[in-house]
């Protein structure tokens, strides 16, 4: 096929001119937010239950035109770009839990939900989750969507074969300290050679830190990653490595998946949403899994919020929609639609959440996750936690995977943390 | 002087090597096809399924329910087509000048062009968004087309290509005829740089087609997005992604690219095989 | 910069026609007009963002709130930031491991494609595929290819009696795996560039070489390679610029399903490239000010490296 230059030129000119002029002509008014009856809601795929969103559109269709938009890609960067650019800002925005620490210092970009009467709803939500949506100055930025209670997933048959407790209640009761958990790991390895309790040391380190009520930086912008709670987590992770109960497999790789499938990695400490990962990652293990409480106390991993931005013209209406979207019945539906673990304890007793799960041998997993969600300790999440936690996570990984000397790794981590803290204006 | 037998043996060896390359190149693509015919949970079984499954239609239906596939494909065609056209025009014109003419400031301007080429693309999102918002282009395809209408990469490529491909005698001859600059460009330069243009066209189209970092930010109206932005909405969090459906979408999105490549690549070798080494 | 190439002829109708030289602006206006679209677009959409990022790099900024003046402290910190320099080292090593095999393979492929008569379309099509295949599929495939116990690479190593390597768990293994992925993805692309370049070589030159009794290897070094120098320079410079700004390859290969940062680049940051480091600082740490400084650091490294490359090719060209 030969294309004539002239023909191409003509076609190209016509098409391009049409598009460009069309675009130029439409660009007159620059709306900051939405206009008229429009109410724009931003979230991401799986961020809210699809059925619930559809129902909300119909329910509020008389008064507003609710446009629920799924944003793909790096959600936070898109939201921040539009907010910094001060145009086309959504009225209602989903905020991911891991990003909360970076939104909260900018609470002035959002409507304080207390001014819309949020206090009335407080008692219906998990207290620690509610507190996570509140900024340092006391204003309420985020309204709770879901949470991610962490539990102990394990393979029933393997535990039984290794002579470990295997009934969920027994596992919860008997492996309730890290010492007992590690001893079980040693026993497992001895009885079934080549089997490890956990995939990596980071699973120990990060879960222990998350169980506590403090992270890496406190409210006064002071570095606390060198204090006892982190040292303890570090020591436990190093001990797990020393006692040989962690593998050197990287999570998500074929090596790890096949080890899980073969029962060589029969256990993991993971959030409620990991159920989906396991079901899709190793579908052949159906029926072999159970969940129990993790050692010491449950922790939380993930879970998001809805917020009303300052660009919203009808905050009262927006708030009304949010509270309806996230009431106990709709949160139960969100769990069915997208595996979103409700932040409303009233949902835990609803039928939809109490279905026996054949993947877990017919166990009602809510019996574990429900109580776990209610016992989570709340910790202050600093916007500097990510930056100052990273060197510790990197170095403990070096200990676990590359076999680095733990003492040297700790010193390296501390040296890096101090440098970063100075740079970020965090005292230490 | 090689015998016919020797030539044939050499030909077989050549094809054997090329065939190995073909298999290496095509396997992950084949894998993508396989993934598109399975459900998400079938994809991750170990050992992997190497044969097609039976869920392609199901994935297809899920995909069409989830996104406005053809509408957004139309937008992508519009953007990629317009940009490709503009890039071919502007870049080849500029390259022609840089390759074959002298004028004051040429070295400095070309050095500047190369410097601009080296600026990391990640710098721009926020200020670009502000500029576009001020111009009122946010949400429209204009915000994608205009900034991409000329680029340093293409000018550099066409300049290098024209340096070798356009022989000075040709230009000299046309100059004696008193040909105007645009006539030289149109009648002397363009006909001999077809393969170079074809390469630039294919990869400009491809780059625009697959780009989504900027479109994701600039296209705020969900009913009016490009294909990659539409497909990016399928990526969930926390293991909820339906990989079978995502892969189906990714594969369907490739069809126009493969067509453009098939048409463009013919220009690259086409009937010019006379230069081949035998 | 342009001196690698033959001095371009002054193809100006004004002097050729014998009339008196006019003043610069009037004489050359059409040339400036022809190159103006790029520079105008850059002024509108490039310069302001670049200036803005320079401004941001002199501040502390979390991307949303107010900026706080920081002077040159971000750059000062950058100079002593061992993680940044590790990333620079990683990037250069991965770039070198990927680029040289890639250029060699692409050249060989192009010459072979140019001479193969049958199935040319099929081959060309297949070699184009790595460049367009979905990243998700690529990540999964290469994850399995380099897996420790089940990977193809280790199977081959064991077949020839070598020990298996934990590719994605050791610093060098990670770099080699990432470089292999890049080579795989870009060889076909560069082969197509070379193929376009090969088409500019007049058949008569080969004819003449054959008359002189030159073999295929001699022909390649005496005719093909010298004639391809401008295109080769292009490929080298573009591979340098894009290779040093790479991030998607290590990201897809090394991201895990755990809660780890997707920008960390595997154990010991062994696969963390400069741009990944930029992402980590900007988006994970919310440190837009430092992120901008890192981006400028990346820019300087790329410029420096490109100049070195350009000089090398240029010098060889003058021999």
From TrEMBL, chain A:
It comes from the Bacteria. InterPro entries: Bact_solute-bd_prot1 (IPR050490), SBP (IPR006059), TAT_signal (IPR006311). This is Substrate-binding domain-containing protein. It comes from Streptomyces doudnae.
TrEMBL record, chain B:
InterPro entries: MetI-like, MetI-like_sf. Keywords: Cell membrane, Membrane, Transmembrane, Transmembrane helix, Transport. PROSITE patterns: ABC_TM1 (PS50928). GO terms for cellular component: plasma membrane. The keyword Transmembrane helix applies. The keyword DNA-binding does not apply. Residues 73-264 form the ABC transmembrane type-1 domain. It is a multi-pass membrane protein. Signal peptide: none annotated. Pfam families: BPD_transp_1. It is found in: Cell membrane. The chain crosses the membrane at residues 12-33, 77-98, 110-131, 137-157, 185-206, 243-265. Belongs to the binding-protein-dependent transport system permease family. This is Carbohydrate ABC transporter permease. It comes from Streptomyces doudnae.
Automatic annotation (TrEMBL), chain C:
InterPro entries: ABC_transporter_permease, MetI-like, MetI-like_sf. GO terms for cellular component: plasma membrane. It is found in: Cell membrane. It is a multi-pass membrane protein. Keywords: Cell membrane, Membrane, Transmembrane, Transmembrane helix, Transport. The chain crosses the membrane at residues 29-56, 92-113, 125-152, 172-196, 288-308. Residues 1-21 are annotated as: Disordered. Residues 88-309 form the ABC transmembrane type-1 domain. Belongs to the binding-protein-dependent transport system permease family. This is Sugar ABC transporter permease.
